[in-house]
Backbone:
């Protein structure tokens, strides 16, 4: 499996979305993250990670705190899928190491 090599100007937020799809991948990727809004808002790409591999890539257009009272204080984004991204299918396991945190920042 080829390792992810980030482009120097890409600010990437990776999120582990799990092994089982509970809903569509966009919804699983975009919401309810415990991140600092100011930092997440700098991301140019959000990568959905499944088993250490980039499943899909989204280009965030807006970040905000969720309106869902059950997940108060967490963040979500609105964005568009980038189905032609060269990051799809790349391995990010080396960026996570043994971290249990589902969120990882690259070039940020």
Residues:
């Amino acid at each position: 499996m080829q390792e992810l090599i980030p482009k120097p100007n890409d600010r990437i937020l990776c999120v582990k979305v799990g092994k089982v799809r509970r809903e569509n991948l966009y919804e699983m990727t975009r919401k309810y993250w415990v991140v600092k809004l100011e930092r997440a808002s700098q991301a140019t790409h959000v990568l959905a990670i499944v088993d250490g591999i980039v499943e899909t890539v989204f280009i965030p257009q807006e970040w905000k705190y969720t309106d869902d009272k059950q997940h108060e204080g967490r963040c979500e984004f609105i964005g568009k899928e980038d189905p032609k991204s060269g990051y799809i299918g790349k391995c990010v396991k080396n960026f996570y190491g043994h971290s249990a945190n589902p969120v990882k920042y690259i070039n940020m």
Q: What stands out?
A: The beta strands are 12-16, 45-50, 53-65, 75-81, 103-106. The first strand starts at residue 12 and ends at 16.
